[in-house]
Specification:
Number of helices: 8
Strand content: 15-25%
Helix content: 25-40%
Distance between the termini: 12 Å
Order of helices and strands: EHEHEHEEHEEHEHHEHE
Structural class: alpha/beta
Number of strands: 10
Largest sheet: 10 strands, mixed
C-alpha cells in the first residue's frame, strides 16, 4: 500500500501563534527566539488577551511580527484565541508558543523534518523546564511515539502542547480546540486528535518552558491542585477511557470538542497582514471521523 503523502513537510507554510496576557517581562525573549528560527516562519502573530494595554512597544521592535488584540474586556484564554487564529487564516501548519517561554533556533526545522519523515500531523519536542522560583533548569522528556503512549495509557500526557506544530488539516478534522475550556484544552485536543492522526516527539530539546508563579498551571484558582481543575481532569480522563473502549470494540470515538464557546473578534493593531482564508474556506466544515493511516 502506498503511504499517504505527508500533510506537513519542510516547505509547509507555518504561522507561529503567541497568546499574550500580562507577560510583558518575557515576551521579547519569546519573539527573539521565533524570528531567529533556522527555518524561517511564514508569519508570527501575538494576540493580546485583555492585558489592559496591548504590548505594542515590545512587538514594534520586531517588524515581521503582527499584533492583534481580542475584542473583549475579559480574558478569554489561549485555546479560544488560538482557534480563532486558525479559523481566520490559511496556513498549512501552526506553531504554538507561550509568551513567557522561548524556542531553540532549530525548533521549527526539526519539527517539520520529523513530520515529513514520519507523516505525523502533530509534532512536539523535549522540554527544558526552567524553574523560575528556584533558578534551576532541568530537561524533561516525552515519548517519541505519542500514539503508542496513549494506547498504553489513554489518560497520559505524552506531548507538551507549546512545543508542537500541528497541521491545519488535523485541526479541521477534529473540530479544533475545546474553546469553552480556559485550561486543559491542550490535553483534551491531544487525546481526540491521536485517534485520527499520527503524533511524534523529536528526541531533541527544542523548547524552554518557564515555570513561574501566577501562570495558569500555578495560580491558586487554576493550578494543578485547584478544585476546578481537579473536577475537569476527572471528566477528561473519563472521556479518554470511554473513547479507548470504543476503539477497542471497533467503534468510532467521540471526536467533538468537549466544550465550545462562540467565535471572538480579533482586531489588527499593527504588523504584516496574515494569510487570510478565502470566502469559500470560511464555510464551516463538519468534523470528519475517518482516520488517516497511522503507522
Amino acid at each position: 500500500m502506498t503511504p499517504d503523502p505527508p500533510v506537513l513537510h519542510t516547505a509547509s507554510s507555518v504561522l507561529a501563534v503567541v497568546p499574550h496576557h500580562q507577560c510583558e517581562a518575557w515576551l521579547a525573549g519569546a519573539l527573539e527566539s521565533l524570528v531567529a528560527q533556522t527555518r524561517p516562519l511564514d508569519g508570527i502573530v501575538v494576540v493580546d488577551d485583555a492585558s489592559g494595554e496591548p504590548p505594542a512597544a515590545i512587538v514594534a521592535r520586531f517588524p515581521q511580527v503582527t499584533l492583534l488584540k481580542v475584542a473583549a474586556r475579559k480574558n478569554v484564554g489561549p485555546y479560544r484565541i488560538s482557534q480563532q487564529v486558525v479559523r481566520d487564516t490559511a496556513y498549512e501548519g501552526y506553531l504554538w508558543q507561550d509568551a513567557d517561554d522561548w524556542s531553540m533556533p532549530e525548533r521549527l526545522e526539526r519539527l517539520l523534518a520529523a513530520a515529513e519523515r514520519t507523516g505525523a500531523e502533530l509534532v512536539g519536542s523535549q522540554e527544558l523546564r526552567v524553574l523560575s522560583m528556584h533558578g534551576d533548569a532541568v530537561p524533561f522528556t516525552y515519548p517519541l511515539d505519542v500514539n503508542a503512549a496513549l494506547a498504553e495509557e489513554p489518560t497520559s500526557f505524552p506531548l507538551l502542547h507549546p512545543t508542537s506544530v500541528v497541521s491545519r488539516d488535523l485541526m479541521t478534522r477534529v473540530g479544533g480546540f475545546a474553546t469553552g475550556l480556559r485550561f486543559s484544552g491542550d490535553s483534551e485536543f491531544l487525546r481526540r486528535a491521536m485517534h485520527v492522526a499520527r503524533g511524534v516527539n523529536v528526541p531533541e530539546l527544542c523548547y524552554a518552558r518557564r515555570i513561574r508563579a501566577g501562570s495558569l498551571t500555578t495560580a491558586a484558582s487554576t493550578g494543578m491542585q485547584s478544585p476546578e481543575r481537579i473536577v475537569l481532569m476527572a471528566t477528561l480522563h473519563a472521556r479518554a477511557r470511554a473513547n479507548a473502549e470504543l476503539v477497542a470494540r471497533g467503534q468510532t470515538p467521540v471526536l467533538e470538542p468537549l466544550a465550545v464557546a462562540p467565535p471572538i473578534r480579533l482586531h489588527h493593531v499593527f504588523g504584516p497582514s496574515l494569510r487570510e482564508r478565502g470566502r469559500r474556506a470560511r464555510r464551516s466544515r463538519p468534523a470528519v471521523v475517518a482516520m488517516r493511516r497511522v503507522s
